[in-house]
């Protein structure tokens, strides 16, 4: 049976590229489909602000004329400038249980990076650390929450066979809100740390103000780019990227779950962003690979967002000047209280770098358990 790899060059090929995932996960009840119309725009290099500082090519593997796998090869110039590195990335790695096709796709991305002078190939990044990233290596027993990746276990075998090694693991923590957030059950240490952080630093915690949306987004962007500056793999978001993310999240937000932490004079020092896990209603709707089907799925997702049992703590950031003062515990404390009162049962805090000891210890205060792990892989590229 013949195998070929083709570079996406037409709109028809781009549609094929996106639709492969529906074949990979056809019989997997835990997969949550993409919104097809959103993916069309996401991969459009004229519409996605990521491509203002990056370049990429998309590739499809065909087995006897049938699309059986995909990969994106990416050169993120902003990443390389910020970290003083020379790496290429791969992402959107989706493939049927076809070892030859998988290795050919990974080799294609490696050669693409090598031709552009990259020293290493790293991924998966879909398309950067500011998007979905990582290969699921532990915790295949549950569907992914919002904006987290999912894949069959055999991807791990393919990546190992292709010579990739661990670069970094990302942790997903599970918190039972009834155990730690119900009245009288919040751990006393958490309460003490949160109260001391608020009193000693003269801080005010308030919900986000959706009527002041643009200003709130600007505040969050400034905190985000300051708080994550020294984190592994971090790349500062451009105005266009954070505006795109904010507008994408806006229809599904529960404003009760977003907090700003400020000094008495109004200067922001931290924020936490949690959302209902709309993957629950989206997974039940299971929209197909069509524009109409995905719009129907999106409508059901938005209408049923408050029926989710889970929330995802997407981001919690504290400016560097206020690190190690308990501000992170204060924000977790406020989020947990409100989430439980609002009827949510579980929280996933993700993803957290395995090396982020301060954040991981903070989650442990809430009796969090690591229940999923994701891995970023890398491979050294030999010059040809």
Give a quick precis of the structure.
By secondary structure, the chain is of the alpha+beta class. Helices cover 36% and strands 28% of the residues. Helix 4 packs across helix 5.
Name the overall outline.
globular
Label the structural class.
Answer: alpha+beta
* Overall pLDDT level: 93
Whole-number tally of structural domains:
2
Low-confidence blocks of residues: none
What's the name of the CATH homologous superfamily of the largest domain?
A: Gcn5-related N-acetyltransferase (GNAT)
Separate helix tally: 13
- Percentage of residues in DSSP E strands: 25-35%
Beta-strand segment tally: 15
The CATH class name of the largest domain reads Alpha Beta
* Element-level helix/strand string: EHHEEHEHEEEEHEHHEHHEEHHEHEHE
CATH architecture designation of the largest domain: 3-Layer(aba) Sandwich
The description of the largest β-sheet is:
13 strands, mixed
Indicate the CATH topology of the largest domain. Answer: Aminopeptidase
Radius of gyration: 21 Å
The N- to C-terminal Cα distance equals: 29 Å
- Residue share in helices? 25-40%
Describe this structure in words.
Helix content is 36%, strand content 28%. The protein is an alpha+beta fold and 384 residues long. The mean pLDDT is 93. The protein has 13 helices and 15 strands. The radius of gyration is 21 Å and the shape is globular. A hairpin with a 2-residue loop joins strand 2 and strand 3 (66-76). The chain has two domains: 3-171, 3-Layer(aba) Sandwich (Aminopeptidase), CATH 3.40.630; 174-373, Gcn5-related N-acetyltransferase (GNAT) (Aminopeptidase). It has helices at residues 11-24, 36-42, 77-83, 99-115, 154-161, 177-180, 188-200, 213-227, 239-249, 279-285, 291-303, 327-341, 357-364, and strands spanning 3-7, 54-63, 66-76, 87-95, 120-123, 125-126, 132-133, 135-138, 165-176, 203-207, 258-263, 268-276, 310-318, 346-353, 369-380. The strands form two sheets. Strands 1, 2, 3, 4, 5, 8, 9, 10, 11, 12, 13, 14 and 15 form a 13-stranded mixed sheet that branches. A two-stranded antiparallel ribbon has the order 6-7.
């Amino acid at each position: 049976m013949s195998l070929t790899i083709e570079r996406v060059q037409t709109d028809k090929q781009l549609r094929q590229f996106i639709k492969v995932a529906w074949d990979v996960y056809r019989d997997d009840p835990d997969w949550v489909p993409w919104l097809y119309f959103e993916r069309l725009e996401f991969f459009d290099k004229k519409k996605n602000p990521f491509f203002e500082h990056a370049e990429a090519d998309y590739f499809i593997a065909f087995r006897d004329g049938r699309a059986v796998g995909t990969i994106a090869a990416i050169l993120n110039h902003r990443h390389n400038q910020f970290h003083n590195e020379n790496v290429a990335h791969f992402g959107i790695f989706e493939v049927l249980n076809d070892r030859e096709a998988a290795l050919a796709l990974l080799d294609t991305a490696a050669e693409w990076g090598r031709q552009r002078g990259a020293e290493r190939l790293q991924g998966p990044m879909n398309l950067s650390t500011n998007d979905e990233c990582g290969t699921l290596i532990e915790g295949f027993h549950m569907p992914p929450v919002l904006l987290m990746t999912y894949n069959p276990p055999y991807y791990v075998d393919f990546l190992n066979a292709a010579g990739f090694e661990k670069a970094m693991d990302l942790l997903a923590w599970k918190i039972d809100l009834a155990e730690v957030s119900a009245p009288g059950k919040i751990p006393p240490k958490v309460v003490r740390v949160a109260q001391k952080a608020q009193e000693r630093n003269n801080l005010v915690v308030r919900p986000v103000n959706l009527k002041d949306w643009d200003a709130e987004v600007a505040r969050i962007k400034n905190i985000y780019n300051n708080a994550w500056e020294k984190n592994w793999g971090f790349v500062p978001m451009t105005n266009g990227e954070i505006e795109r993310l904010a507008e994408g999240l806006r229809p599904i937000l529960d404003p009760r779950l977003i907090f700003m932490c400020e000094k008495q004079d109004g200067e922001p020092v931290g924020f936490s962003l949690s959302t209902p896990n709309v993957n629950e209603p989206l997974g039940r709707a299971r929209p197909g690979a069509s524009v109409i089907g995905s719009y129907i799925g999106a409508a059901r997702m938005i209408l049923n967002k408050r029926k989710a049992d889970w929330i995802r703590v997407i981001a919690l950031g504290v400016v560097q000047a206020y690190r190690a003062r308990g501000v992170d515990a204060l924000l977790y404390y406020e989020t947990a209280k409100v989430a439980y009162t609002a009827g949510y049962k579980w929280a996933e805090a993700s993803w957290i770098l395995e090396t982020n000891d301060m954040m991981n210890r903070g989650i442990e205060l809430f009796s969090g358990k690591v229940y999923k792990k994701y891995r970023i892989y890398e491979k050294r590229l030999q010059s040809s």
